[in-house]
Design goal:
Elements (H helix, E strand, L loop, with lengths): L6 E7 L3 H11 L9 E8 L5 H6 L10 E6 L4 H11 L4 E6 L2 E3 L3 H12 L3 E11 L26 E2 L10 E5 H6 L18 H11 L4 E14 L5 H20 L8 H21 L5 H19 L3
Parallel strand pairs: 1-2, 1-4, 2-3, 6-9
Antiparallel strand pairs: 4-8, 5-9, 6-8, 7-9
Helix pairs in contact: 7-9, 8-9
């Protein structure tokens, strides 16, 4: 590996060839930082045309080293850990394969790293709807579940466990992440399995280890969302799986029979959701229905160990 590289821009991808092509095109528009950098693509067990897209040269920024590594073990956490292992840079910066970075994105990261030498960084993620207008049922409070994130211009460091960063716009000092064991490979999306949590888990371990996380409001990433494909079932399934994971972990070695208070919480969530749907209609009730899905999943995870 080239020890003179300061930053590794890493993009992990799985079976998103069409979306990936648009993301790669956006990399050519990036303003270059003063220090040296490289691009590292982790092809995570793709079976579509991803390899062919990556072989093309038209998207590659002139003069910037590009490496493509195949990670055969499916899972976004596995791909990100492979990126950490393969990266030449002192800092590894992540974007996703359905995002477009602002042209100043890399420059903003370099500025923050030069100022504070943090252990990790996270930046602003804005939603860009493609192909149709935003659905009426997608209320502002739901945007965070499709990746939107902003803590405002007045925030410099993140210190609370309730304010995590998302890996769709993040940077990590390689040695700091290695010190705490990297990403938890039991978490995160695996192919079509709608799961997550690997990024917030890493963030919380960084904070608990006393490490510093810098917030970058001006380092903007645009998360491209195909509005026609937005489906309420995505949000419900996400919370069902999250509940299963939390229920399994919470039970630990305790009795598989869920405690009575969980049934009470499920019933309460159901009453609130149905009441909201009755009063304001289905365009205003999804957030409450997601709570119902979470408690159903929590009970399943507790009783059957489902994830």
């Amino acid at each position: 590996m080239n020890s003179s590289v300061a930053y590794t821009l890493s993009l992990c991808t799985h079976n998103h060839a069409e979306r990936l092509a648009k993301t790669l095109t956006g990399l050519k528009r990036l303003r270059h930082p003063a220090a040296s950098w490289e691009i590292l693509i982790i092809n995570n067990a793709s079976t579509d045309d991803t390899a062919s897209v990556l072989e093309r040269s038209d998207w590659r920024p002139e003069g910037i080293p590009v490496r493509v590594v195949v990670e055969s073990q499916l899972g976004i956490a596995n791909a990100r850990n492979r990126a950490m292992q393969e990266a030449s840079g002192e800092y590894v910066l992540f974007i996703d394969d359905d995002e477009t970075p602002d042209e100043n994105w890399l420059v903003e990261y370099e500025k923050a790293i030069g100022e504070d030498q943090p252990d990790a960084l996270g930046g602003n993620i804005s939603i860009l709807f493609e192909g149709a207008e935003r659905p009426a049922w997608l209320q502002d409070e739901l945007l965070g579940f499709i990746g939107a994130l902003s803590y405002g211009a007045d925030t410099r460091f993140l210190t609370a466990l309730s304010t995590p960063t998302f890996t769709g716009n993040s940077g990590f000092k390689k040695t700091s992440v290695m010190q705490i064991g990297g990403f938890d490979s039991s978490l995160g999306r695996r192919g079509h399995v709608n799961s997550g949590g690997e990024d917030t888990d890493l963030y919380r371990r960084l904070i608990n280890a006393g490490m510093r996380v810098r917030w970058l409001e001006k380092a903007v990433i645009y998360h491209r969302i195909e509005a026609p494909k937005l489906d309420k079932r995505y949000f419900l399934d996400l919370h069902l799986r999250q509940g299963r994971m939390e229920g399994k972990r919470k039970r630990g070695t305790a009795n598989r029979l869920p405690p009575p208070y969980l049934f009470s919480q499920l019933l309460r969530a159901f009453r609130i959701a149905t009441g909201q749907r009755w009063r304001e209609g289905s365009n205003h009730s999804l957030r409450f229905e997601m709570n119902v899905a979470y408690f159903v999943g929590f009970l399943q995870g507790w009783a059957f160990g489902q994830v």
